From TrEMBL:
One of its GO terms (biological process) is dGTP catabolic process. Belongs to the SAMHD1 family. GO terms for cellular component: nucleus. Residues 27-173 form the HD/PDEase domain. InterPro entries: dGTPase-like, HD/PDEase_dom, HD_domain. This is HD/PDEase domain-containing protein. It comes from the Eukaryota. SMART domains: HDc (SM00471). It holds the Pfam family HD. It comes from Didymodactylos carnosus.
Length: 239
């Protein structure tokens, strides 16, 4: 129901990597497919945690909330994604504007305009759950499930799991990071301060190195001189 709304369908027309396809022609994929992929991986991770650590008491409602947040986390992106974000920051009085802020507003708008609350209630989601979904989109929460979609503490989350595979494949960047194996070794542990965190086995430390190296290589492709020149032309036109 969410995917079929006009507000979500517009993501088909928003490029994931701005002007990167001017250098890497295959990199013309969009936010629509990335959002669906992120939603899928979020569901897979929550299902794994439900099976491996039943004492966490992760409910089906918890899983659905995280999946909806993953599905809608990029709703606020404008044309050419992060390039649009840069332009908005320069032209608005509020220099701290983010696409996450717009995603939350669009999620509210999408829900109201398409009368989706009755549908959400069928899955036993109430107003508290809707607030939780928006908090997940806004940024990491203290609890482990609040860092599945957006983890600013470590930079490791399902958003990156999807775009690493997708962006590398589309732009021809080689990578060795395997998110499916990585997720199998995820466990939620309680820290000394009482909070519960997503943790990874020590033997998977090389996978962490692969993850960060993959992110660096994708950024290098996106920051290609020709891509930057193309961005500057559009940026000047938009300004």
């Amino acid at each position: 129901k969410i995917i079929d709304t006009p507000q979500f369908q517009r993501l088909r027309r928003i490029k994931q990597l701005s002007a990167t396809d001017y250098v890497f022609p295959g990199a013309s994929h969009n936010r629509f497919e990335h959002s669906i992929g992120t939603c899928y991986i979020a569901g897979e991770l929550l299902t794994l945690l439900q099976q491996q650590q039943p004492h966490l008491d992760i409910t089906d409602q918890d899983r659905i909330c995280v999946q909806i947040a993953a599905l809608c986390h990029d709703l606020g992106h404008g044309p050419f994604s992060h390039l649009f974000e840069d332009v908005i920051r320069e032209t608005r009085p509020d220099r701290n504007w983010t696409h996450e802020e717009a995603s939350i507003k669009l999620f509210d708008y999408l829900t109201d305009q398409n009368n989706l609350k009755p549908m959400l209630s069928q899955y036993k989601l109430d107003d508290t759950d809707i607030i939780f979904i928006k908090e997940l989109i806004a940024g990491p929460l203290p609890e482990f499930n609040g860092k599945i979609v957006s983890n600013r503490r470590t930079g490791i989350d399902v958003d990156k799991f999807d775009y690493f595979v997708r962006d590398c494949r589309q732009s021809g960047v080689l990578h060795s990071f395997e998110y499916k194996r990585f997720m199998k070794f995820y466990r939620v542990l309680q820290l000394d301060n009482g909070t519960r965190e997503l943790c990874i086995r020590d033997k998977e430390v090389r996978s962490c190195y692969d993850l960060y190296r993959t992110r660096a290589e994708i950024h290098q492709a996106v920051q290609h001189p020709v891509v930057r020149v193309r961005d500057c032309v559009w940026h000047g036109t938009a300004s």
